[in-house]
Amino acid sequence: MFRLGDRPRQREVREADERNYINDTDLSSMLTHIELLGLPAKQTRTVVRDARRVELAGLGHPAVMRAWLIQAMTGRRASEVLMMDFEPLSDIPGLDAAAVPEGGMVARLRYQQTKIDTAPNTILVGRDVVEIIREQQVWVREHWHLGPADTIRYLFPKTTGNRHGTKSWETSNYNHVLKDFSHHLDLRDSHGEFLLYSRSHRLRHTKATTLINAGAPIHVVQRYLGHLSPEMTMRYAATLASTAEREFLALAKVGRDGREIGMDRRDMLDLVQLDRRTDRILPNGYCLLPPTRSCDKGNACHGCDHFATDRTFLPDIQRQLAETQSLVATRQARHTERYGDPMTGANVWLEQRNAEIRSMQLEIVALEAQPTDSTAVVRGAGVLGRTGYQDTANTSDSQGASRS
Length: 404
Known about the structure:
globular, hpI Integrase, Chain A, three-stranded antiparallel beta sheet, alpha+beta, five-stranded antiparallel beta sheet, 41% helix
């Protein structure tokens, strides 16, 4: 009991802010372009900006690139990664790492718990994180002229004024490099806003939200993030309206390559509340956008991650595929007649049409494989129908992991 006015003030728990969450599309785009940060300044890479292809030079910061990737994959704070020991990995007792299938945990990572003294400071990681750490160790040994068995204090040592490697990268310098890279790349999010790699703490919020939306118990996520209380963890759990649809699709493990979502279309209609939004019923399928959101893609449904369809729409998709292929052939003939040369794959219009064609072909293959009376819904081919994603689709699925 307390006298009036003497009651201890309870710490206010801040609500999760969706702006701290990076959606799958934006994170995938950031991961796709992060290689430019580590590329030597003398090398260039082609990126698409405002539907135009431009050549950008690398920034020559491979260590910063690897630190950011570790943040994205593990949800660690920047300081926890930058201050890691040179050898932060250890074996998991009783585990044969060589026998672990792709996507499994193969090692224990020790990071520097820089915020809470008594909080955990280890997590389990997969081969992707282990490979990044090994690459960084090789890079450090080359730059500090170390022998195969030699080590220094930090995995991410400061590159100037640090002859003996006793100083780590500072977060201020790290963020400065990431900010310069963001402006150099000029990458925009799905809403057209500037994407800042230097806001790397968003990766921690994103990792927490992804784990919770995938069904991980809150105490497991709490341990993984190194928190002392579940209240701290829930501040990161942005389980908002716009992530509810992503949760459903992530758990289905389908989607973007035309495989079955694994539910009846009648259940799917209830899920996305199509009775309230008739504009979600399309001529060739369904739009899975949450009812509170509007579409800004026009009629480019086959290239959209929110598109789904079923066997009843198979004739419509087959007809649309034939019409698109005919349109491409006509435009290519006119281009050759006018300019004397065929339209190349670098043409933005042709690239978009080819992506739609690949997506529709994947959808048709999936739908034709179903029984004629099937009511199962399949996800549109989406991003895996785009150029550059075809060869990596099977690899990503076999690993059972996404880069979010």
